Amino acid sequence: MKDVLRVINLIKKQSREFTVPSVTQISHSRDPYRVLISCILSLRTKDKTTIEASRRLFCVADNPADMAKLSLERIQNLIYPVGFFRNKAKTILEISRKINDVYEGKVPGDIKRLLEFKGVGRKTANLVLGLGFNIPAICVDTHVHRISNRLGWVKTKIPEETEAALERIVPKKLWIELNTILVTFGQNLCLPVSPWCSRCSVNKSCKKVGVRQFR
Fold it and tell me: From its phi and psi, is residue 174 left (phi > 0), alpha (psi between -120 and 50) or beta?
């Protein structure tokens, strides 16, 4: 655990020179609803597009009650051109109505109920818990899964396995920010193909599992 903590701190320090992910930027308000909706918008969408779409949408409706009043077409127009904007608009409207009708306008703060929302998986649910409620949770996306295996911390095939494995070796105080740290690192240096190992502060500690070519 000590070596994992050391590596995380080195990555965190080096990643400060880069822009953090879109959902992290939006989460500074600590509003679970904004985090949830931004997560939905961010799927298969570039960060810049996610941020711009989120701002347009939240300027019109930044809570479940106001969002539930909007038409599907209005939401589609506000979030375009995020990926799969039609499906996402439908999901946002359905989730907003359920939060408003079933949970009295408040996003539930437990993973079981979050996972009941259509279009919400463990990645989104854990990000909402961490960034929205400040509840310790490890959000495993493609970057976290890839980098954890590449470093040799875990040997897993699916995100759920990675989440469980990381919970055993990462100090709980770092669970919330781990996603931001590794996503920022993965977007800028530890790339899926041909990572920048020559510029990496943990190059000597990395086992480079699965890396065939690097710079």
Answer: alpha
